[in-house]
Structures are given as structure tokens and as C-alpha cells.
Design goal:
Elements: H1 2-14, E1 41-48, E2 55-72, E3 80-95, E4 103-109, E5 114-116, E6 122-124, E7 134-140, H2 149-161, E8 168-171, H3 182-190, H4 194-197, E9 202-203, H5 208-211, H6 226-230, E10 250-254, E11 257-261, H7 279-290, E12 296-301, H8 316-331, E13 336-339, E14 345-348, H9 363-366, E15 384-386, E16 394-398, E17 417-421, E18 426-433, E19 436-443, E20 448-456, E21 461-466, E22 472-475, E23 483-484, E24 492-495, E25 500-507, E26 514-521
Parallel strand pairs: 7-8, 8-9, 11-12, 12-13, 13-16, 15-20, 21-26
Antiparallel strand pairs: 1-2, 2-3, 2-4, 4-5, 4-6, 7-18, 10-11, 14-16, 14-17, 18-19, 19-20, 22-24, 23-25, 25-26
Length: 522
């Protein structure tokens, strides 16, 4: 029945937009007229290395064939084609010359066959680096354990997203269990997330299970790992950041967010992430220094520096990361750290300066305030506000996108955690709008059990001098809801003040945020 459906689908698609008109970019080369065997799609398509002007489309077929991607700005008008005449099973085509923050539709195939391409084959190119606006990024921790929970988490995440746009998603390692083999990726990752992969580019990192292929030499030799054969990363700075020239770690920009993807398990030149003389650590220093003025900086990797869930962060690997890497991140004002490995959910408050074992954590010393950050009107729930020093980081452990482990450490939860849950699985939605960042934990039953908000550069006190008769627009420093002392409820109001001194204020509905504009008209 499966192959009958494929056959019907291919016949239907053969008439799609007159099949292929082969209007090839000049640099692609000529097309052979020799007929090819008709392949069957067995993996993908999946999207990689998204930037503001390019993307990589990958897929796998059952037999070797040429590779063709038709694309355009409307599903019925795929007016551009990228083609590779090489006969391969694993296909990889780069689309270039794209417009920034633009929706594109695409169809994949070979010289003679369209394998897939409809209104659900689409992507949105990134906005230019630094541009502010509404951005969404999905976060899946340890997503590759084949359980009944895995599709439930996926479906509830998709339900929350609905018709809203999402630019990309990230994974936090352990993308396939137990040995990171190609066949495991097929069953536990590609088959499960195929509808997400064809619309949202994924930016993954490794976990220990991505390395465990029963070959110890693979720990040092990436060419032996299926993970590095399957995924493409922006290691050459294609999407921003300092080029790493290493698939294991890289950075990129999505609007005004700088993301840093690290490898906490593998080794490069016999050094690992926590080795301060190693190539990954030295690259991290350069990348942080270059991007220190970015609005938001988010780092993610597999092994958490703070956790007492199914794994203890007082173990050697995690403790060395906490002692050596965390101080570097905090020195450069990294706002959020996302990790997996522990198959539970844990989340700190905004904190700074704790690099020791769990027992040494003192909330009064290391938490930058008592707020939960929930921003829901409850007591002590105002947003985390980072001042001009940019101090403070929230650490999230979210390794339960495909399974939870109820057995936790005796001291669960970690003393640094505001919230912890060892029962429910879930994935996270990161939403950034200008100077506001929200992270929501969406569980397998659809309930959002945790969330927090961070804001920067808010609570303004501004003095403005005007001449008589001038008008001016006043804009609240924060993103949310607005209550002005003029009774208006929009973020921006326009005023024509009378001569003298007048004061305009705006606050949010929870009275957490307040701007004051003192207007002096001469």
C-alpha cells in the first residue's frame, strides 16, 4: 500500500508546473538527456545551514540519481532551479541568491522525477543579522529515543506553533539512540520529525549517544561518525559568527540573536570543550569577543553544568565545563544556556557566579533577585531584567523531548533550580521580539508548565526638550501590553504638549515595568 501511494503521488507530481522546465542557473552546468532510473524518496527532504541568502536542501533516495531543487516565492511558480548532475543516493543542493526574510517554496527530485513538492515544502530565509523583530526557534533536547512520548511532544509543539512562523529549530544532542548509527537516525529522527524537517532548518549538536558507534577511534575522528555525514553545519560562517571550520561546533545569527552550538562530549585535536587551551575553547573566546554587542546571546550543548536529574552535574565532565566554560560565557553576558543529557526539565532563576558543586550554591549570593521570571501576575513573577552591566544567565536543562527518567539524584532538584519536573516530557519554544525574550516549556499533554521572560534596556526615565507647537511620538521601552497615563493602550503615542513641564508614564498590566517621559516645552 505504501508503494502504491508513492506511485500515485509521483504520477500526480509529474504534472506539477509542467514537471521540470530545467531553467538552470548558469553556474549549474548542462543537463544530460540520458534517462535515469526513477528513484524513491526514503529520507527527507531536510533543511540545513539557513542564512539570509542561502540554504542547503538534503534528501536520500533508494538508488543513485541526479539532484534537482526547484524553488520560488509561490507554490505554483517555482521559477528557479538548482541542479547537480552527479548520481548520488545522499543528495545535497545549495540554493543561493535568495532574498532575506522571504518565504520560499520548493520541490525536490532528479532529472526526470519530482519526488516531493507542495505547499508544505517551504522555508523562510533569515532576516539580516542584528535586525529586531518577532522570531521563533524550537528547542528539542535528546529527541531521538523512540517512545510513545516522542510523537506526543512533537504534536503538542506543532499545535502550539499553529500557523505562526518559526525560522529554525535546534537539538541538544542524543539525536539517535543508542549508538548514533545511520539506521537509528532514520527510524528515531527522520521518520518522526519529517514534517518539521522539510519546513524548519535544524541546527543540531552532538550528545554522547551520537558518538557511541562501538568504534573508540570515532571519538577523535569525525569522519567515522554518521552524525557528521548526515548533518551540515554553518562551520564557515555562512550564517554569521566566527568560522570554526569544524562541524562539531559553530555559531550563527538569527536576527538580533547570536547562537553558539558547542560539542561537550567529543574531542578535537585530543582536547575537549573544557580544555582552556583547546581549539574549541579558543574559538569560543574569539566568537564571544566578536559578538559581545549582540542583543541576545544563547549557547547550547549536551551536558548541563547544573543538574541533579537522571545525571549529576557534579560529575567530572559537567563540573569541568562549569568551572572553565561557564565563567567565560558569563564574562561576555550570555543570556541563556540550553542543555540536555538529563532526561528531565530543570530551570534556574537569573544567576551569576556559581562555579562549584551543588552543595555550595547560595541563592542569596548567586541569584540576581527573587523573581520567578514567570511574568504572569503572581507574586515575585516580574521579568528578569538585565541592566547595563548585562550580568546574569538563565540555565535550562531540557532533555525530555522523547523520554523522561523518573530516577533522579538523591538531592533532586539541584539547589540552583527554581523549577524542576521529572515526570513530564516536552520541548521548548524560544520567542524573541526586540529586547524581550520568552522561553516556554510545552509538555506532551499540551500544558505549558514553565516559562520565563527576560528583558533588556527597559524602565526608562527620559527628559525631552521641545519647542512650542512641536509634536513627538513616545514609545514604551518594553514589548507587551501598555497603560499610559493618557489612557491610551498602544506602545507608541503621539503628543503635542502645552508649554511648561509635563510628565507621561506607561506601565505594563502587572506593574513590573514603567517608563517616565518628562517633557519640557519652551
Amino acid at each position: 500500500m505504501k508503494y502504491l501511494f508513492v506511485a500515485i503521488y509521483l504520477v500526480t507530481m509529474s504534472s506539477f508546473d509542467s514537471a521540470f522546465d530545467y531553467s538552470i542557473h548558469d553556474n549549474i552546468g548542462s543537463i544530460s538527456k540520458k534517462a535515469e532510473p526513477k528513484p524513491i524518496l526514503i529520507r527527507g527532504p531536510y533543511l540545513q545551514v539557513l542564512s539570509d541568502n542561502s540554504i542547503i536542501v538534503r534528501w536520500r533516495t533508494d538508488i543513485a540519481s541526479s539532484s534537482s531543487v526547484r524553488f520560488g516565492k509561490a507554490p505554483g511558480h517555482l521559477d528557479k532551479t538548482a541542479f547537480d548532475n552527479t548520481l548520488v543516493i545522499d543528495h545535497m543542493v545549495k540554493l543561493e541568491g535568495l532574498d532575506a526574510k522571504t518565504r520560499y517554496y520548493y520541490a525536490i527530485g532528479s532529472k526526470d522525477v519530482v519526488l516531493q513538492g507542495d505547499v508544505n515544502n517551504l522555508f523562510i530565509t533569515l532576516p539580516p543579522a542584528g535586525e529586531k523583530g518577532g522570531l521563533r526557534i524550537g528547542v528539542f533536547g535528546d529527541p531521538g529515543s523512540l517512545t510513545t512520548m516522542q510523537p506526543q511532544v512533537r504534536d503538542q509543539f506543532s499545535k502550539y506553533l499553529g500557523s505562526k512562523d518559526m525560522l529554525a529549530w535546534i537539538t541538544l544532542g542524543d539525536n539517535a539512540y543508542n549508538f548514533g548509527l545511520d539506521a537509528e537516525y532514520q527510524v528515531e529522527f527522520f521518520n518522526i520529525y519529517k514534517n518539521m524537517l522539510k519546513k524548519y532548518p535544524v541546527f543540531p549538536v552532538t550528545g554522547n549517544h551520537d558518538y557511541w558507534d562501538n568504534d573508540d577511534s570515532a571519538f577523535l575522528d569525525h569522519s567515522k561518525l554518521d552524525y557528521f555525514k548526515i548533518f551540515s553545519m554553518p562551520e564557515n560562517g555562512e550564517s554569521g559568527g566566527v568560522p570554526s571550520h569544524n562541524q562539531a561546533f559553530y555559531s550563527y545569527d538569527i536576527g538580533n540573536i547570536h547562537l553558539i552550538a558547542l560539542d561537550s562530549f567529543g574531542q578535537q585535536d585530543s582536547t575537549n570543550l573544557s580544555d582552556t587551551t583547546g581549539i574549541q575553547f579558543q574559538w569560543l573566546k574569539k566568537d564571544l569577543a566578536k559578538n559581545k554587542n549582540t542583543d541576545w546571546v544563547i549557547a547550547y550543548w549536551h551536558h548541563p553544568p547544573y543538574s541533579m536529574g537522571s545525571h549529576s552535574s557534579d560529575n567530572d565532565m559537567e563540573s569541568r565545563i562549569r568551572e572553565n566554560v561557564v565563567p567565560l560565557l558569563e564574562r561576555y553576558g550570555v543570556d541563556l544556556v540550553l542543555c540536555g543529557h538529563t532526561h528531565n526539565y530543570e530551570r534556574t532563576r537569573l544567576m551569576h557566579g556559581h562555579y562549584g558543586v551543588e552543595g555550595s550554591f547560595d541563592a542569596a549570593k548567586y541569584n540576581l533577585g527573587n523573581s520567578s521570571g514567570l511574568y504572569n501576575g503572581n507574586r515575585n513573577s516580574c521579568p528578569y531584567i538585565k541592566d547595563s552591566t548585562n550580568r546574569g544567565t538563565v540555565y535550562v536543562v531540557t532533555g525530555a523531548s522523547s523520554e523522561t527518567v523518573s530516577s533522579v539524584q538523591p538531592t533532586w532538584p539541584h539547589n540552583a533550580m527554581y523549577y524542576a519536573d521529572s515526570i513530564h516530557g516536552g520541548a521548548n519554544m524560544l520567542e524573541v521580539n526586540g529586547n524581550r525574550l520568552d522561553l516556554k516549556w510545552i509538555c506532551e499533554d499540551g500544558v505549558i508548565r514553565d516559562q520565563f521572560t527576560i528583558m533588556k534596556n527597559v524602565n526608562w526615565n527620559t527628559i525631552i526638550h521641545l519647542k512650542k507647537g512641536q509634536t513627538i511620538a513616545l514609545t514604551a521601552s518594553f514589548v507587551g501590553d501598555y497603560e499610559w497615563n493618557t489612557k491610551q493602550k498602544t506602545r507608541t503615542i503621539r503628543i503635542s504638549p502645552t508649554p511648561g513641564i509635563s510628565e507621561y508614564t506607561v506601565h505594563d498590566k502587572y506593574l513590573c515595568l514603567r517608563d517616565t517621559f518628562r517633557i519640557i516645552v519652551e
